[in-house]
Amino acid sequence: YAASALLRDALAREGQAGFLLDLLPDLTLDRVRAEISHPRGARSLASHLKSRLRLDGIKSALLHELLPKAVFEDAGALAAAIKALPIRLAAPRPLDEAISSAGGVRFEALSPALMTRMPGVFCAGEMLDWEAPTGGYLLHACLATGRRAGDGAHRFLADRALPRP
Description:
This protein has 165 residues and is mainly alpha-helical.
């Protein structure tokens, strides 16, 4: 998640972006190379990678999608690719598929109580312009800013309340 803003900005600026993905971050390059080089007998390379490195599913699919066939014939090249698979990005996914998106009301446009320049209109959570990680941190921040905006709205209304007869 931490790299998403950098990748998004690179896509907007340069029309493309990329990064290197380590498919087996708990293993060293030497260990991956050694496991690939281990004799596999009559097993297919896919079975060998699955049994020696637990490399299957989406990881295996990424290798087959992104690497030329020649890389699979060279243990060193395959190990290097597993440890630093080049991923190229050409465009972001459509906004309606997003879990979260950037943008929103800027903090400079809000009072400390999170009220906008329009009296009585308050903003909280994903209405705000901030880079938020998804999951528990996002939920915590949404609830915390909601509480702050709610307290601000309560004070706003209390200050305008008519005295009771």
